[in-house]
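Annex B, item 7. Sequence and structure tokens for protein A, then protein B.
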Amino acid sequence: MELNVNWIAPVEHRDYNRMPASIWIRCLQLFPYLEKLGVRSSFNDPASDAPITVIVRTQDEQAYLTAQRLKEAGKRIVFDLCVNYFDECRVPGLGEPVSAGHVEDCLRMVSLADAVACASDNIARRAGRHHQRVEYLPDSIDLNHFRLVKDEKDFSRRRLRAVWCGQITKAGDLEPVLPLIKRKKIALTVISNSKPDLRIQSRLFRTRKFPYCYRPWRYETFPEDILQGEICLTYRETDTTYNLGHSFFKIGVFMAQGVPAIASPVPSYRELMDDRQCGRICRTVEEWEQALDEILADRDMLRQWSSRSREIMNDYSTEKIAGRYLRLFKELI
């Protein structure tokens, strides 16, 4: 039996380079894998008569009215959340990523949903206070696209190379660990939507005291760019509900190609890394320094982390996660 699902997202194109990453991660890249499982996906199709609609990364008035109309017509609604929009939050450098208006809009959408799908277990736990049917459907890695493999010989390089990837507005997240990288003579590559503005971003960037290599983020070149480092660095403060809700994609996409991570204790990062010998979770700057010293002194540790990282991410391939979506869709109808 073929199952039809309509997906609604706040873009009218399919160019991964011009949309929020969460839309292609939690929507478009799933389509070919769902099709193999007998699920035909339409995208922003107002004429769709699909029995299930998944609403991704949108919760404004138009999204609410659309969900209300579909609900009245007897359709099933899945509301997909990649951010914790249940708690107001202010974050230094980002202002107010979750306002009272965001919370109100989110709760209205949840009230209409037949199921709430969440990008992290942390968000799912929060959503569970407002809805009986909450599914943790992790972000996934399309291993047909991210199919390159880190060359183990790179881990013997005289100068270790680190990689950071993210929106340029969040480049300041690296501020606490940049002095460590500089002092230990570790090279840094920044992959982002634009080059760090030396007037706005990190103090070290701003004063031109920190050399780095910049690579513009593009979906087509991202797999190759990932391999430009031996370690992925992802520092986040964990004192806000916004940061605690992040999915693991930021480190998982590196791990899938054998580039291990040193990261802050975001719950989803710990899901991949706690007690699994594939990297380091660091709670303090002192722990970050210790982790960097360890890998500088023992490159075999990096090789072991690399192999283990790839093994772990096989369980989060888009092919496997698509199966979890299929189970949810079948249960809803």
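Protein B:
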Amino acid sequence: MIHGLTFKEYVEEEKQKLSEMNKEEKIDYFKEYYLKLCIFGVVVLILLLWLMIDIGLNLRHNVVTGGVVNTKLTTEGTELLGKQYLEHLQLSKVFNKVNIAPDIFLDDDDPQSYTIFQAELATNSYNYLITDDKGLDFIVELECLADLDTVLDSEVSGQVSDKKIYKKLKESGTEIAAAIDITDTAFAKEYIESGGKVYFVISGKEKEYDSAVAMLKYILER
């Protein structure tokens, strides 16, 4: 009910009012009674559309998440590991996404940078990491990485056999293949700005190791 009238009756009454007005009176009537309501409706519609789009983007399948530690990844490199990787996999960006954090820096003068990164590793935030010697040592110390000897398939393992970097785990003393030295790859030479060694590390959840292995293969093919 609107002012005691049914919707149909209200519409008929408004039509009758408008039919008795000239053009200027109709414009003034609209401004006075309906303009604010129309603006409100448009704003609500825009907010609803934005909310639906935001929810849709957040619900996209995350293919893989990477982090670049203590080395600088160029803009083109970020594109290569992100949008272009989805294209390589022939996956739609409407339903899928690739996350890459290109600027993780461990600063000795900023202990919080270590704390934040440690928390991210503890919560399996990254499937793979590209890092330098300093970053690798910190990751190994936290033991938040995979043994590549047990993760890589025979083809890839053979391909990088002379590039495996072995480190001892502090707690158990076990030596594992902690990283792959990718310093001399075309990818690192073109897209990584580093004055030293560059390593590829697999981290995150064990059930998601395959996504990191796929990224390693992609990088080696560049």
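Comment on protein B: The first helix runs from residue 7 to 19.
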